[in-house]
Here is the input.
Amino acid sequence: MEDSGLNRQDLFRLCMQNLMRRKARTVLTILGMFIGCSAIITMISLGIGMREAQERTLSELGDLTIITVRPPSGSRGSGRLDDALLRQLRELDGVAAVSPKLSLEVSSVTLSTGGGRYLAEWTNVVGVDTSAMENMGYEFLEGTPALQPGQAVIGEYFAYNFRDTTLPEEADIVDRYGGQWDDQGNQLTVPDPFFDPLGRPCTMEIETDSGRFSVNVDLVGQIKTDYSKGNETAEGMLIPMEDLLHLLARANGTSETDVVYDSILVKVSRVSRVEGVENRIKAMGYTTESMEEIRKPMERESQHQQIMLGGLGAISLLVATLGILNTMIMSISERTREIGIMKALGCPVSDIRAMFLVEAGTIGLIGGLLGCVFSLLLSAVINWIAAARSPSELLSTLLGSGNVTQVSVIPWWLLVFALAFSVLIGLGAGYYPAGKAVRIPALEAIQRP
Amino acid sequence: MNESNLRSQPVLEVKGLWKEYSAGEETVEVLRGIDLNITRGEICCIFGPSGSGKSTLLNQLAGLEKPTRGEVCIGGVPISRLDETELTNFRQRRMGFVFQSYNLLPNLTATENVALPLMFRGVPKAQRERTARELLERVGLGHRLNHFPSQMSGGQQQRVGIARAFIARPDLIFADEPTGNLDSKATLEVMNMICTFARDFHQTVILVSHDPEMASYAHRVVTLLDGQVVHDRRPRRNISPFSEYSRPITLPHISGHQEEFGMWRTQA
Here is the structure.
């Protein structure tokens, strides 16, 4: 027996003929699908735009994957921040790197450079594991980590600590907040410091109750500010932990053998693992800090907003689905006799089912395609209007380039998803009517009108 | 099975066929024990007044309805036991239909309508439409190839319907009051056409009618009354299904064209 049934071109041709036969109804149903599809794409794109803006804000606040571990507070435990804990934390699942932190606690630390012309009296000097700096995610603006004894890495705004001793008292410092600001509270320009400290010979004078001494420091690198890692990334100085321990020993006249750190920074491999790692450290009895406390509620709120927006889109899509369903059911009751005739003439049942599914799927596909095109346009218009507030950024906003936040973001996967979803909805809406059509008996053909 | 065996074997066998419909409490027996054998090449008219059960019988024979009891075999296949898919397949290969109300698909042209049964078999468009056009020319509609049903007269539509019923060369053609909606001139044309095709291709035709005039076209007339066969006669002396049909053929298009229809060549 030869293979029977409609070939694909014929099936498709029949479907198109059937759709073309009721132009107004087909067009209206497609219109419904088009509106539904546009609505869901636009709503989701707004949600994505919101989330991206939020992520940008958060990343400006600091590294989201850093957990700061501090000693247990109050009566919660007696855990110490020592090398044993350091090793323990490094072994935790999801931890990428750890670094201890210890401040130089002495009566005063004075830095001088330029042959004593520039003086900085209140500098925060912190010892860290400098060999782990890159793994910890310190962002170097210039230079390298301080790996050798006597080397140091400085914070982004380190130079602003210095005053020029040759200038009168009122004008001897550069205020780094002294530049131009816009209406939204963003600093537009930062005035230049007196000098670029990197590479300059620098002397550190340490004063304690028992006396004072000086050491020379080599400034080899400069890092970007990241408050999640500590204030020293802005204005302070980071030196190898061994150096710091030596300085402390010399200042206090003791030799430290059992070191207890101020805090330990833990770098987690992914943002999504931060919460888990943080909970485990808390369970060990320590106090922790991370951006999670800010990120979580923000994320939750943005999820709520996205669900709300998506829900709005979904409602119009649901209405569109009912539209297709209605059109196909109408179509069947009109074509009952025709389907009976086709069956009597030997049209396989599977082809009758396929015909209705293809018709409904086509409505979904065309509606979805139009919806995709329209939402791209709509998204451009929304971004245009949003950008009208700052016309200088118009071009980059429309092109989606640069660091400009877009209100509506349509990634390619959203279009693919919307299109596939539209076709699926069409097929879904066609499923019941197709089943109904299949059950129409061939006897319909022979019944006299 | 050789040719002579095929010919002598009944193409359609009906054994003890009963059909009951139940409407609420009441049961109506529409067919009450029909036995019937129809030989290949026969033109058989099922004749009876309205309500005699002839349309119901046709539905059972064509497998459009399941009988309450009894069996219908076509070419030895008990069709009353086939499921919907098998039946559709069977119909596609073995049966053709001519309907009283023509039942052409309104959105297809004459050619496309005739080609439908071949389309359902997956025959490519060019090939099936060539065959359809040849057939339409044969039924005298060469000038109506691309007309839609609504643009044709009843007689023309029914000729399209006949071409459609014969195009896939089925063993059995069921014609349900094929001339019921036609005037006498169109009736003559249509019946001549059915009989000519059936004779030329040795096809079996089962004709259902309440019109005594129709009976005169048949080799055999089975008369039904109250769901039973009351009369089964062969009105002509020479009743061989392969005998020349005595009525004049009124279609000038047919002669001369025959050789061109490779697919349509009469079996020797």
User: Anything to note?
Assistant: Residues 19 and 67 of chain B are 5 Å apart (CA to CA). Residues 237-268 of chain B have pLDDT under 50 and may be disordered. The domain at 3-102+155-238 of chain B is CATH 3.40.50.300 (Rossmann fold).
